[in-house]
Amino acid sequence: MKKTMTLRRSALAILLCFSSTAAVHAQSNTNNLVLEAQTMDLKADPCTNFFEYSNGTWLKNNMIPADRSRFSAYDEVTERNLLALKAIAESASAKLAEPGTTAVVNLVGAYYHSGIDEARIEADGAKPLAADLAQIDAITDRTQLLAVIARQHQIGVGSLFNFYVDQDAKNTTRYIAQIVQGGLGLPDRDYYLKTDVKTVDIRKKYQAYVATMFTLLGDAPEVAKQNAAAVIAFETRLAKASLSKVALRDPQASYHLMDINGLSKLSKLDGNAKWANYFKDIGLDQPAQFNIGQPKFIAEAGLMLNTLPLPQWKTYLRWQLVNANAKDLSSAFVNTNFDFYGKTLAGTKELQPRWKRVLHNLDTNIGEALGELYVAQFFGPDAKAGVLEMVDNIKQAMRDSLSKLDWMSASTKQQAYRKLDTIVVKIGYPDKWRDYSQLKIDPNSYAGNNMRAAEFEFKRNLAKLGKPIDRNEWGMTPQTVNAYYNPTMNEMVFPAGILQPPLYHIKADLAANYGNTGATIGHELTHAFDDEGRQFDADGNLKSWWTKADEKAFLKRVAGIEKQFDEFNPIEKLHINGKLTAGENIADLGGDKIALQALRAALKKTPQPEVIDGLTPEQRYFIANAQSFRGKTRDENLRLQLATDPHSPEKYRVIGPIANMPEFAEAFSCPADRSPLRPAGRRVTIW
Asked: Strand ranges (DSSP E) for 116-170?
């Protein structure tokens, strides 16, 4: 789904809208590339344990690396991409002193050099934060609070709330300022509010982590403990006013247009701490209108700005600053940060090597510069042409599916066709590369580079106000092993990183390609018609195009898939949250069905061997799809995923859809007593 503006510190391809890969190998008797048999466990019964049948040998032979909280098919591809990016960055770094080096190479090289210079980073300690810590320390009245928050927002620190510019969801021909909830150090509001034993233990460890960070800033141990308690109390107030992740999935719930008077009245910031001051400090003329994502949250934030003691504010702002930048500072900060977020929350055993962490920041902060060098070596026009053909076939399959729906009226179908026909497809990389000429990168200032890069992106985003919509902009970098659908743009985007062998290969068996990349395309296409995406029309506006009867029929089917996934119990007493994961589960099911239809049509145009390695095209399709989800995850990370991630765990993204697909039972000739199919009355079919 749509990516809104995110604060820096996002990792390369950590959150997948749809991760997909199917390993392949060359056959001696065919030019086709087909499935990698050694990942499978042929002793398993595909009808009763298809995930094991497709992936059992891989699951047995692959351990989760110590520097990861999970390891999956997409991680394998990401690791190969990282090695390619490392070579690119090291080459750029080596050319810094050479005459004639291009601006892009210099930018990437200087950034990478600054991040690899451990001795300098270690010697600097917390010095890169000195000026911002001094600004916080100098606060003497409430008029200065929003000034400090404005500064922190500019450098990628999400204190109190988040501010960015994006399309107006109900008038997508214009950009509008967006003010939404934020300001938490734990992954979600529920980590502050739930009272089960594990959550309470995580809160205690979080408080200890906060205290340790304050000691690294120079606070005495007892003062640090008091400050940590103050931070927890502060963030708990924000959490209580925040919408849950399930509530945030309803785009209507996060749309509230206001002008400056309405915003001031809501937050009661019409005295010393004024919104006008904030906008001035971020370098923006006072916008005429805003979208206030969560009014209750902004009201609470205003109350806190007006009433909380200044010492508590200063403590919270110091915490936000150091926590956001900890990964870029000396090893004491890095290791302390990793001990909580890596080990405690995700179960990761070891910190990733520095070169990987630097590449993550490079991708986040100057990703299109890195991408320009990447695609020059790793993405050609033949791959793009092949993917476009698949897209066309899958869109046609979707149109055929729509035409056969017995629960949707003709009038709604016409609107659905219009939306389908106007979906924009972006493949590989942007038509125009981002201009970084105004960004200063110092080869001797890693933390400073990250702050300046965040400030550059903040200003670039703000500059959209009042300008035409940039329909060429990308929300992911070209090297990302990922894909997405953006509802307000009504577009699907497939970066070059996800279109590499063995994820996609123009010489691969069609069944493998369609079960893999085809299902990815079908997944993203279905997002246009999932429980969120279906609320946006062909022009990207948040506007109903359904009859009441059709909407009711659709929501009944959504309730069915929510109930199905609610029943899955991946670990201990924790179940998948069917409402949180509904959109992705709908997209998985729709993508599987539509890509299979497209495969059948493609095979009529381009016949291939009916049986390869004893497997029919339909069987190869389902196996390729299941292999795309092969993966392992640590228990801690699985609990984190179930609490916060809109995607179901990998195994259930395989067995959930096929339990609704007679096509699967037919492909593997599953008898009634061993069929994975749910009873007909509980089987879900949407698209």
From this structure: 161-168
Residue whose C-alpha is closest to residue 455's, from 625, 644, 324: 324
Least Cα distance to 54 among 22, 77, 32 occurs for 22
- Residue 24: pLDDT band (50, 70, 90) is very low
Contact 328, 157 (CB under 8 A): no
pTM exceeds cut of 0.70: yes
The 10 Å CB-count burial string (b at 16+, else e) for 537-566 is bbebbbeebbeeebeebbeebbebbbebbe
Alpha carbons 686 and 530: distance in angstroms, whole number = 9
Query: CA of 494: how far to CAs of 106, 138, 485, in Å?
Result: 27, 47, 9
Pick the closest to residue 565 from 576, 580, 554 (CA basis): 576
pLDDT at residue 31, as a whole number: 40
Asked whether the beta carbons of 291 and 168 are under 8 A apart, the reply is: yes
> What is the distance between the alpha carbons of residues 556 and 550, in angstroms, rounded to a whole number?
10
Q: Is the dihedral of CA 30, 32, 33, 36 positive or negative?
A: negative
Contact 176, 165 (CB under 8 A): yes
Instruction: Identify whether the C-beta of residue 269 lies closer than 8 Å to the C-beta of residue 223.
Output: no
Rounded alpha-carbon distances, angstroms, from residue 5 to 43, 84, 269, 441, 468: 47, 27, 25, 22, 18
pLDDT digits (tens, 9 = 90+) for 447-487: 999 999 999 999 999 999 999 999 999 999 999 999 999 99
- Separation of alpha carbons 218 and 450, rounded Å: 23
Q: Do the beta carbons of residue 342 and residue 348 sit within 8 Å?
A: yes
How high is the pLDDT of residue 34? Answer: 56
Residue at 559: amino acid letter: A
